[in-house]
Amino acid sequence: MSQKNRLPRGGRIDRTRPLDFTFNGQRYQGCDGDSLASALLANGVDIIGRSFKYSRPRGIVAAGAEEPNAVLQIGASEATQIPNVRATQQALYDGLVASSTNGWPSVDTDLMGILGRVGGKLMPAGFYYKTFMYPSSLWMTYEKYIRKAAGLGRAPLENDPDIYDHMNLHCDVLVVGAGPAGLAAALAAGRSGARVILADEGEAFGGSLLDTRETLDGKRATDWVDQVLAELQSLPEVTLLPRATVNGYHDHNFLTIHQRLADHLGETAPRGAFAQQLPRQRMHRVRAGRVVLATGAHERPLVYGNNDVPGNMLAGAVTTYLRRYAVAPGKKLVLATNNDYAYRTALDWLDAGLQVVAVADVRHNPRGSWVEDARARGVRVLTGCSVIDVRGSKRVEAARVAAIDAVAMKVTSPGEWLECDLVASSGGYSPVVHLASHLGGRPAWREDLLAFVPGEGFQKRLCAGAVNGVFNLGDALADGFEAGATAAAQIGFKHGASELPRTEKRVEEPSFPLFQVPHEKPTARAPKQFVDLQNDVTAAGIEQATREGFESVEHVKRYTALGFGTDQGKLGNINGLAIAARSLGIGIAEMGTTMFRPNYTPVTFGAVAGRHCDGLFEPARYTAMQAWHLRNGAEFEDVGQWKRPWYFPRPGEDIHAAVARECRAVRSGVGILDASTLGKIDIQGPDAREFLNRIYTNAWTKLDVGKARYGLMCKEDGMVFDDGVTACLADNHFLMTTTTGGAARVLQWLELYHQTEWPELKVYFTSVTDHWATMTLSGPRSRELLSQVTDIDLDRDAFPFMSWKEGLVGGVPARVFRISFTGELSYEVNVQADYALGVWEQLIEAGKPYDLTPYGTETMHVLRAEKGFIIVGQDTDASVTPDDLNMGWAVGRNKPFSWIGWRGMNRADTLREDRKQLVGLKPVDPQKVLPEGAQLVFDPEQSIPMTMVGHVTSSYMSATLGHSFAMGVVKGGLKRMGERVFAPLVDGSVIEAEIVSSVFYDPKGERQNV
Amino acid sequence: MSAVNVYEQRPSHLDGQSPLHHAGLAELVGKGSASAGIRLRERKLLGHLVLRGDARDPSFAGGVHKACGVELPVALTLAAAGETSLQWLAPDEWLLIVPQGEEFAAEQRLRDTLGSELHYAVVNVSGGQTLLELSGENVRELLMKSTSYDVHPSQFPVGKAVGTHFAKTQLVIRHTGEDTWQLVVRRSFADYIWAWLQDAAAEYGLAVDA
Question: Which Pfam families match (chain B) (predicted)?
Answer without folding.
Answer: SoxG (PF04268)
